[in-house]
């Protein structure tokens, strides 16, 4: 069967698996594993801690470092409260577009990889080709973090990773990280008329927020020279501040929801170290002087590493050559790419479809985008 038709056939099957992040992705993973095993790949499945989901890691060729990794997440975002023109889980072709939940984000890329697998199987010799399909990207990149642990344990580092998130086949070499936290303050309640007998959680939360605001300013001055991010520095946002119950009661609880979008992992460490110091050396001793059980806990909602643009990047070099693009760009959205970069791989994000169509009603993948992706994946075979 012709490559494009085969890709569409696979994509139709992938769309029919409603792999919402809240549900199991195992049927999709088993389906992909079957196709990869059929062309001789060694396939490893690794279950999520809850047991309902799995990552797939497959290899064509020798089990050595330096291979090429094609990676995509298998989960999709919900369709709740979205007004779709057709069933989101039945792929439909209209006006040169393939409609369905996950067509561009990012089952189109996964379908293209699976359709190319038999070709790669015939091409591989010394340099392996790997496939990684993960779970739970949309809710915090948990699958990719799990995969990274597995790869580390196995001692295997692919040389190049291509993350097929929708970039309209532009080569993306960087995006900021996204780190989200809730900091909880536990004090001691009491009567408003005797503030010294209680520990006012709101007051400590405010001092914490004041420190965050100072850090926010300092990060501006730390922006790397020639940075291309918009804005070029690490940003901090205090999104929500809650605490207390009434005018005349010492607040026993407070919560600060905040995030930072680091341009380098160093900035994230800088912020976390400064906050830890503030808590350990300043806030906690004062709180515990009154009430030994008072405390501050930092709850990590998610830490999705950024993709730092690198001077040397073989993935960029290969993909610029294959796509014919003049240069690589940056994007504002986060991906799993930084997790693979942290393992020592050269990484770019490059995939079919547009992020503008992702997560929306009537999500679609334009057929010409899929065509472009297949052309690039065919050319990629030369590097095996
Ligand atoms: Zn995605």
Which descriptors apply to this entry?
single chain; 384 residues; alpha/beta; 6-stranded mixed β-sheet; 36% helix; elongated; binds zinc ion
Task: Write structural notes for this entry.
36% of the residues lie in helices and 22% in strands. With 384 residues, it is α/β, with parallel strands linked by helices. It has a six-stranded mixed sheet, sandwiched between helices. The chain has a four-stranded antiparallel sheet with strand order 10-11-9-12, covered by helices on one side. A hairpin with a 2-residue loop joins strand 4 (92-94) and strand 5. The radius of gyration is 24 Å and the shape is elongated. It binds zinc ion (ZN). Zinc ion binds at residues 73, 105-106, 137, 165.
Order of helices and strands: HHEEEEEHEHEEEHEEHEHEHEEH
Largest beta sheet: strand ordering: 1-2-6-3-7-14
Structural class: alpha/beta
Q: Give average pLDDT, whole number.
A: 96
- What is the overall shape? elongated
Briefly characterize the structure.
This protein is an alpha/beta fold and 384 residues long.
How are the elements arranged and paired?
Blueprint: H1 3-16, H2 26-38, E1 42-47, E2 54-60, E3 68-73, E4 92-94, E5 97-99, H3 103-123, E6 129-134, H4 142-154, E7 160-163, E8 172-174, E9 178-186, H5 201-221, E10 235-243, E11 253-261, H6 265-290, E12 295-304, H7 314-323, E13 329-330, H8 337-342, E14 346-349, E15 364-366, H9 367-380
Parallel strand pairs: 3-6, 3-7, 7-14, 8-13
Antiparallel strand pairs: 1-2, 2-6, 4-5, 5-15, 9-11, 9-12, 10-11
Helix pairs in contact: 1-3, 3-9, 5-6, 7-9
Bound molecules: zinc ion (ZN).
């Amino acid at each position: 069967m012709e490559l494009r038709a085969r890709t569409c056939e696979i994509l139709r099957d992938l769309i029919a698996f409603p792999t919402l992040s809240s549900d199991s992705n195992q049927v999709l993973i088993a389906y992909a594993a079957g196709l990869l095993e059929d062309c001789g790949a060694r396939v490893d499945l690794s279950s999520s801690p809850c047991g309902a989901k799995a990552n797939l890691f497959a290899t064509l060729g020798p089990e050595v470092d330096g291979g090429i990794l094609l990676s995509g997440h298998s989960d999709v975002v919900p369709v709740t409260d979205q007004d779709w023109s057709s069933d989101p889980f039945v792929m439909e072709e209209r006006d040169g577009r393939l409609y369905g939940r996950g067509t561009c984000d990012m089952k189109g890329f996964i379908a293209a990889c699976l359709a190319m697998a038999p070709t790669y199987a015939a091409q591989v010799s010394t340099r392996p080709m790997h496939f990684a399909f993960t779970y739970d990207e949309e809710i915090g990149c948990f699958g990719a973090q799990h995969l990274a642990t597995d790869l580390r344990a196995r001692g295997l580092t692919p040389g190049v990773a291509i993350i097929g998130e929708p970039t309209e086949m532009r080569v993306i070499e960087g995006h900021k990280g996204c780190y989200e936290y809730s900091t909880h303050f536990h004090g001691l309640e009491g009567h408003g008329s005797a503030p010294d007998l209680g520990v006012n959680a709101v007051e400590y939360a405010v001092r914490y927020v004041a420190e965050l605001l100072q850090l926010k300013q300092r990060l501006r001055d730390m922006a790397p020279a020639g940075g291309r991010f918009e804005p070029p520095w690490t940003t901090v946002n205090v999104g929500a501040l809650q605490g207390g119950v009434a005018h005349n009661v010492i607040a026993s609880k407070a919560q600060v929801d905040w995030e930072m979008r680091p341009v380098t992992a160093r900035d994230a460490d800088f912020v976390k170290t400064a906050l830890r110091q503030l808590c350990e050396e300043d806030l906690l001793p004062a709180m515990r002087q009154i009430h030994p059980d008072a405390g501050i806990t930092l709850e990590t909602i998610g830490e999705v590493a950024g993709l730092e643009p690198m001077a040397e990047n073989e993935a960029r070099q290969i993909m610029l050559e294959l796509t014919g693009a003049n240069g690589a760009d940056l994007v504002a959205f986060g991906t799993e790419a930084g997790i693979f970069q942290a393992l020592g791989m050269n990484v770019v994000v490059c995939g079919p479809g547009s992020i503008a169509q992702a997560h929306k009603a009537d999500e679609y993948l334009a057929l010409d985008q899929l065509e472009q992706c297949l052309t690039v994946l065919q050319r990629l075979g030369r590097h095996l």
